[in-house]
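User: For my dataset I need records formatted as: sequence, then structure tokens, nothing else. Please produce one.
Assistant:
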Amino acid sequence: MSGYKTEQEEFWTGQFGDDYTNRNQGSQLIASNTALFASIIARTRQVKSILELGANRGLDLLALRSLLPAVELSAIEINPKAVKELESINNLKIYQQSILDFSVDYQRDLVLSKGLLIHIAPEMLPRAYQV
């Protein structure tokens, strides 16, 4: 392993992570994410900042931005190809790293992870939950 704590981190930074990024795109995914997040946001109050753990190419963040145009968005993403895609999202703070290495720099109103935690080594879940 090249500097990562787990095999999963190495796996997601390589070809598998690139292939995942290539497969997961399109307006239909953004539309379904928008519907999901609309029902979630309707149950919140004054969400002004959001951090997504494992954002991949940013489809969740694009959906959230359509619902909350003025929201401050941040993303943690380990895969370099996905980070390049994230760079096309305006006013997005990107942390290119593992969530296992992330130190919270300031509090957000909403922190989310959708599909990431199933890819974390079980013994590292307590660390991931601390983020």
